[in-house]
């Protein structure tokens, strides 16, 4: 009898521990360009609400096996929605608090860098992913996630150090750039900060690449459009020879009095 009680106690603790470190409250999840799907973590993705409204749904990626993800999660990266113009999804958010947005991508068409490059903008004001080149980051037919924490509080949206007015809807826009068309494979939003949600699924490292190398690839690229206001100001110390001449002058200053004294002797 005590053994049975121990089993029930273990199950009871495990159940509540799982709730404590779980994924948080799922607010929104959609399998872009594809049907409803439940992933290996139990997250339920709705079918794409943009079907028949904007962009193109594609399952071209089903020709390939997507790297870094389990069999059950292949579909999330094999289907996508792309558009010849900017498009996006609207996520209703009714409560204040901390949230995490996860965007899923895989390049299944191009086999070179700089062929598909685009931005991701929240509420038309916050560029949270700049110049995303999926192939450049992870290569072809390989999963790539962008994890973006944000906060909604007192009518304000706070993300990546920026603040704007918030009216209850998070608009996630994929911005048309100069290189091909924007796309998205899947996305979801959970309530809770990234620090409080250690179990927000992270993709495993790319085979043959150390985690710190992958992190380096994921860092934001510099703004190529940014220009300085004029020519680079020369360093005044580059042509200043005083630092070189000073020891010589000091030596001469010491040598001459010494020579004079010797001559007097």
Defining key terms:
265 residues; alpha+beta; eight-stranded mixed beta sheet; 5 helices; globular
Q: Summarize the main sheet.
A: 8 strands, mixed
Oligomer: single chain
In terms of DSSP E residues, the strand content is: 25-35%
Approximate helicity band = 10-25%
Low-confidence stretches: 4-21, 218-247
Mean pLDDT: 80
Major beta sheet, strand line-up: 2-3-1-15-7-10-11-12
Shape: globular
Annotate the secondary structure layout.
Layout: H1 2-20, E1 25-31, E2 37-38, E3 44-47, E4 56-58, H2 74-78, E5 80-82, E6 87-92, E7 97-106, E8 117-122, E9 126-132, H3 134-138, E10 143-153, E11 156-159, E12 162-165, E13 169-179, E14 183-184, E15 186-191, H4 211-218, H5 242-264
Parallel strand pairs: 1-3
Antiparallel strand pairs: 1-15, 2-3, 4-5, 5-14, 6-13, 7-10, 7-15, 8-9, 8-13, 10-11, 11-12
């Amino acid at each position: 009898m005590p053994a049975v009680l121990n089993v029930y106690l273990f199950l009871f603790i495990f159940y509540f521990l799982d709730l404590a470190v779980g994924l948080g409250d799922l607010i929104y999840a959609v399998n872009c360009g594809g049907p409803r799907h439940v992933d290996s973590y139990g997250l339920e993705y709705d079918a794409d609400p943009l079907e028949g409204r904007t962009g193109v749904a594609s399952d071209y990626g089903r020709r390939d096996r997507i790297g870094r993800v389990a069999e059950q999660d292949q579909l999330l990266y094999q289907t996508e929605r792309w558009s010849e113009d900017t498009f996006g999804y609207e996520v209703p958010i009714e409560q204040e608090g901390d949230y995490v947005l996860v965007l899923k991508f895989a390049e299944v068409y191009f086999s070179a860098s700089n062929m598909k490059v685009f931005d991701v903008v929240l509420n038309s004001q916050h560029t949270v992913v700049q110049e995303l080149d999926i192939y450049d980051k992870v290569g072809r037919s390989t999963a790539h996630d962008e994890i973006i924490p944000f906060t909604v509080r007192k009518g304000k949206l706070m993300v990546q150090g920026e603040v704007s007015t918030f009216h209850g809807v998070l608009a996630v826009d994929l911005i048309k750039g100069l290189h091909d068309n924007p796309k998205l494979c899947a996305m979801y939003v959970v309530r809770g900060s990234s620090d409080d949600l250690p179990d927000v699924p992270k993709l495993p490292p790319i085979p043959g690449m150390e985690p710190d190398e992958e992190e380096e690839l994921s860092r934001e690229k510099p703004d190529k459009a940014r220009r300085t206001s004029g020519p680079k100001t020369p360093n005044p110390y580059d042509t200043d020879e005083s630092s070189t001449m000073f020891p010589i002058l000091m030596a001469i200053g010491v040598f001459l009095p010494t020579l004079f004294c010797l001559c007097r002797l």
